[in-house]
């Protein structure tokens, strides 16, 4: 297990003193090579590490910065993105400078784009937890990572350039299903980093062939000649990633193979380099296929054989220098998994494999994806101001927080002549602050189980009080449907968020035809996630939320079936049990602001199921037709 | 204002592999600007953004006027140049909408992620044709007209029906087969490799191909006013709109304009039903009732069966 990183000036990037680690961990070597490749090719600018020990993020970031700058000490700290990152902090930077005639003020490109269009090392952006990144941060990542051009039109700043920043992000593989694939896909380089033991940066970088760091630094200032990629190599990439892979992944793997070939001074990237690139990311490579000999191609590289497979550089694309003795070479050159091409592989020697180790864990993740994570939260009511809301205007400032610099300067400019001062002067009356979109104060989450609606029961009557509540409070509405015959996948719940009950999608949702399956567990889990996200996103401004579940409790689709899309019979009571387990997530929430009601469809047999669900949710039961209320667990009764 | 950006290299339009529908929609919109724009929907990594930028570079030799999703309203509607203000010079800074009106096109990447207050501004301008700014000491009202080109990934949410309707055509990016994927990756890697060379025959040939395509589009643009639309084609369009229960009348108008642009592009003497049939999905897929309210954008066999008998020879 890794130990605490030292903070001494001599050991800037290690978590284990060099005396204790005589030979670098194979995973650490792979990581180091991946970072060099990310430095060489701007299209590989996003590096995502899964299951990295949190205390290792800083040393890894410092290692990356050192590769980018070539300096033992980075000229500045990396740009840290978190749940609190806001657009105005990322895209613009107000600068105050002392000039000959007083203070000068100007807006400059912010930390994410400040090195664009310039020479020298690019910015390094670090995301400690991708799943907790703010909406502004996620949107920035989508806009910048791997993009040909980024356009910024923010607060008087107009900026167009090819993004140069390199990104280093961490994420638990168990959470990999939560961020949108749109975001994850932007990270070209993935590495399962569980169990990483990081030696000193000097030790790691000293193992690299001397030319690697030179090439990495040259690439910061100009396009460096790259190796060609043979057709055979592209076929190998396709074979390595499988037919289901998307094009971005194939392109990324091909680029990584090309970067390795370029670093090695090869003219052409072959299937060997592709295999090496795959191993570098932690993908399994079938040994037989990995040894495919390069074919002749237009660049005439057939005579140049890639590294023999039993050499340490084979797995990494590293070239051994004459006389260079690499400790642990025998281990680093070993294929990570020799005969099972369909599986991900672990962290190798020294690694503690506790989770699925694949560079694409989101493909197998069972966590529920966030709903519309890249959209700014919908606002409906004039709730309390939040410093995280989207800027929608300016107003005269009452304090010095959240100052709108452009508006303030413009206001000051108007009065300069009247003031007759020698230099540009900003006075307190000029100060303006941002007006931000407010957060919703009320929210209704409605879970509709269509399979429980039978006979002449019109559940709209029962739901009317809740819908009226949402309407009069201008509440946001989140509808989750299960058991509809119109669904695209009957094993999964479907949901949508609406700004208010007046959304035209809501009425049709109340009257869908009844389907065959009832993935109630999936529906409850989606409700839990919608509520959790709202409480997290809106903070204290969300003052009251209702979760209303209309069901007979007879969920007949287990959670696993909903997640995988495959139903294995017999189901038994698994669907019901999963529903109750998922409901436990609600009971753990802030009950001073969340209220829960289960509307019992009153169907027999198994009439007690709604009561069990209400108990798990920590709510009350309402009888569908009569709206008589019973306390949790069905013990008492009374009019609501 | 030039939208050149240093160090930005976009794959040439003529080298983008596949996505024929996307290309056709952009070309029709260019040949006949009253179509009013194109919305491109598709999964991530289907070259939507690349295609839009490459097309703008081909026909305008500069990047499109782009509205980023997090733009502030001062950059959208216009404001003051900050540096000039500091020097005591009140110099207005045109907004993106004004720039778009100059070029005839506003590109919005990830349009479904655009914040509501920006959507409201854009809807106001495209529906009234007037940009009225009464803020921060500015008091202007300008007549503006531009087409919207947007790209979106439907997995990240839909569009408000009002904004959806403002896009003349809508196309869905297709998933490529293995061979096309191979060619795409091959092309991208070749392009990146060629960029590192001092002289590149590959890039020169691509530029020549782009130039030839631009000339074809310009000729088609000139031909559009002289390409008649027979009355029976107009009636056919109205019946097709009725069959698919299109919301509003904009779909029929756009379909007719697009059919005429296609006829001009193909050098036909007049618009024939085949032209209309080809553009029908583009004009109506986002104006069906189920789509307008957040449903799927797919135009499947069921949709085709609704109109196919209209286009069968008598």
Description:
The complex is a heterodimer of chains A (640) and B (314). With 640 residues, chain A is of the alpha/beta class. Chain A has 20 helices and 21 strands. Chain A has three domains: 26-363, Rossmann fold; 391-436, no CATH class; 442-639, Rossmann fold (3-Layer(aba) Sandwich). Chain A is 30% helix and 17% strand. The two termini of chain A are 57 Å apart. Chain B folds into two domains: 13-172, Rossmann fold (3-Layer(aba) Sandwich); 225-308, Magnesium chelatase subunit I, C-Terminal domain (Helicase, Ruva Protein, domain 3, Orthogonal Bundle). In chain B, strands 4-7-1-8 form a four-stranded parallel β-sheet. The radius of gyration of chain B is 21 Å and the shape is globular. The mean pLDDT of chain B is 89. The chains are: A alpha/beta (640), B alpha/beta (314). At the A-B interface, strand 4, helix 4, strand 6, strand 7 and strand 10 of A face helix 2, helix 3, strand 2, helix 4 and helix 8 of B.
Name the overall outline of chain B.
Answer: globular
Which superfamily, in CATH terms, is the homologous superfamily of the largest domain in chain B? P-loop containing nucleotide triphosphate hydrolases
Query: How would you write the strand order of the largest sheet of chain A?
Result: 16-15-14-17-18-19-20-21
The SS-based structural class of chain A is alpha/beta
User: What ranges of chain B have pLDDT less than 50 throughout 5 or more consecutive residues?
Assistant: none
**Helix fraction bin of chain A:** 25-40%
Write down the domain tally of chain B.
2
Percentage of β-strand residues of chain A = 15-25%
Main β sheet profile of chain B: 4 strands, parallel
* Estimated radius of gyration of chain B: 21 Å
